[in-house]
Amino acid sequence: MTNDSPINTFGALSLPPYGYAKPLGAKTDRQLRKDPEAERIIRAVFRRIEKGASCSEVADWLNQHGH
Question: Residue 50 sits in which domain range?
Answer without folding.
Answer: 36-67
